[in-house]
Write a structure and sequence with these properties.
single chain; transmembrane; elongated; transmembrane helix; membrane; 2 strands
Length: about 210
């Protein structure tokens, strides 16, 4: 990918007359190249981190007696990894036959479309992850003991699967909160990791647009 990016800029993504001063033209070429390279590198590293993290989580969960939860989480993460790989490939395959400003605009458009697709997936991921964690907690020995203690301390006639009705009510409310704010939670997580680079991309595009001759 580095070679293809370098080739793009050597071939002159921005014509000499597109910006006001040739030196400024060259400066923005290099800034554009570095920023795109950095973002793509960060995306690639993130994919590897998800894979490694999922495998480590599976090992840890198996060691603490919750292998099925580890497998369940790996299954949830598998589509995310495949989606991330496909989205990254799309960024590599963006058309090179355009100016650097047009390329950055295309990259930015791909980025926003990609974020939208991820947000849709996370609307399902976070609730399912929550359900898995709660199910494991309730099914564990510790969870069973806690439920028995709650029933003894706060008895109720509404009991299902040895779990008090008020616990089911709390679990349901929290699930609804997770469902409602899952997309917002994803975007918060995204901004914490990539927010600074996204801002640089927006500012670079804005500056290059301002420098284009009318």
């Amino acid at each position: 990918m580095n070679k293809s990016i370098e080739t793009m800029w050597k071939q002159g993504f921005i014509s000499e007359g597109e910006l006001v001063v040739p030196k400024v033209n060259d400066l923005y070429n290099r800034k554009s190249q570095n920023l795109v390279d950095k973002l793509q590198h960060m995306f690639a590293v993130n994919i590897k981190a998800i894979v490694i993290g999922a495998l480590l989580l599976l090992v840890v969960m198996s060691l603490i007696g919750a292998p099925w939860l580890g497998i369940y989480i790996c299954i949830l993460l598998a589509p995310l990894v495949l989606m991330a790989r496909q989205e990254l490939d799309k960024s590599y395959n963006l058309s090179k036959g355009q100016s650097s400003l047009e390329y950055l605009e295309s990259f930015n458009a791909w980025l926003h479309d990609s974020i939208t697709r991820y947000a849709i997936y996370y609307k399902f991921f976070y609730p399912l992850f929550y359900v898995g964690m709660v199910s494991q907690g309730l099914a564990s020995d510790a969870g069973t003991r806690v439920m028995a203690r709650l029933l003894k301390t706060y008895p109720t006639d509404y009991v299902f699967l040895d779990i008090p009705g008020y616990v089911w009510a709390l679990i349901t409310v929290l699930l609804l909160v997770v469902i409602k704010y899952s997309a917002a939670l994803y975007r918060l997580d995204l901004n914490m990791i990539y927010g600074r680079q996204f801002k640089k991309l927006e500012e670079l595009i804005k500056d290059m647009r301002a420098l284009k001759p009318e």
